[in-house]
Amino acid sequence: MEKYHKFRQENPVFKYKKYEITEDSELISVRYDFEIPGLAEFHPEWKFPKPETFSGSVSDDLTFERLVFSLGMVEAVSYWKATCSPEMKVECGALSEEQVQWWKKLYFMGLGEFFYINGINADFDSFVTINPVGSFSNSECKDSRQLSGCLIPIGGGKDSALTLETLKNAGLDCMCYSINNRHSISATVETAGLGKERLITAKRIFDRSLINLNNAGYLNGHTPFSAIVAFSAEITAYLYGLKYVVLSNESSANESTVAGQEVNHQYSKSFEFESDFHSYEEKYLQTGVYYFSFLRPLAEFQIAKMFVSHKKYLDIFRSCNLGGKVSPDIWCAECPKCLFVALILSPFVGRERLTRIFGKDLLNDAAMLEYFEELLGMTEHKPFECVGSIDEVNLAVSLAVRSYESSGEQLPLLLKTYKEKGLYHPELIDDMYSECCCGYNEQNLLPSDFAEILKNEMERLL
Asked: Is the pLDDT of residue 295 over 80?
């Protein structure tokens, strides 16, 4: 907290100075200029591939400029957080007071984990003042186009693989989207039976001078990355004339990471953000693109059960943030995300296959006990990772214990510990299982035809 006040006092203003859009026959490039006066300048970049059928230019398109400006607003928070300057001066683009409040909410809620980990007691009214003083260079939007087809962001994990497989099998026209392609992403698209041309990859170039500030002791922590996915996918869908941006966020993402507090590692994956973004797009961006999450009605447990029926993905999917930093991406088999995925799959995938997937028998690893307790809800907070709810982790573990015992197989360490702590209640399992598998969260934005596809798939696989 002391650093927070010190840095704010020393660096009272953060500037979002401008964005530059250039294009050639193949790429649209965007360069942002951010500045903490007297301390640092930042110049992150994005490169979006043009579709082969693209004609004309984006240089005189107000809609595209609004999209680029908005992506800059969410990109800026990664750099602003180094000093948490009390004023963000926006010298380009334009924002109404209602929009200012929208962005403040995204920053405040999306930085909940950052504030918590750094011991910052921030309040909504005073943590930042967004001061818009700029304007847009274009005055007219291009004529609206007839949009069709789906853009599915692919992260390499089980959720987006399930969305892609389901919608492809339903006969929908699917394009895929990624930021800075990884092996598991291209492998997911290939395993789905789609050609390389079906994957659109935007390149995000992070300004590494921020790391120098972090190394010098300036503030660092989690930012709402899924909001970056949202705005950059919206740009891509607009360029390619696609009607839907189809996310794969589940209802479990709505649960707070810290018990009794509004601190959610997955805030920008929550339905609250999805709904806010959907409204912002309709009112201020007006691309005609419809943003929603196909898996929002489901819990992680349901997704895991449905996913394992598509066995072709088991050896290629990856969801590990640490392992994603190496090439080709791997399961690190040391983090809470790896453990969560192993646990949620454990009722449906045998121990030998689980060990083969992760390269280690995670259910028998004593180093995982602390994460295990966090995932079960036995500590103040869950791991700060994209993991499922406490209830469904307990259900998955209970089912795994019952399966091991019914087959006469010795319980691995974590499952044995679960029983020893008195957490195993076999008399409750069937009711918990039935309630979870039959669940359908009505807080969602699925168009009716997508809802029908999902319900049919649930009936088939659950």
From this structure: yes
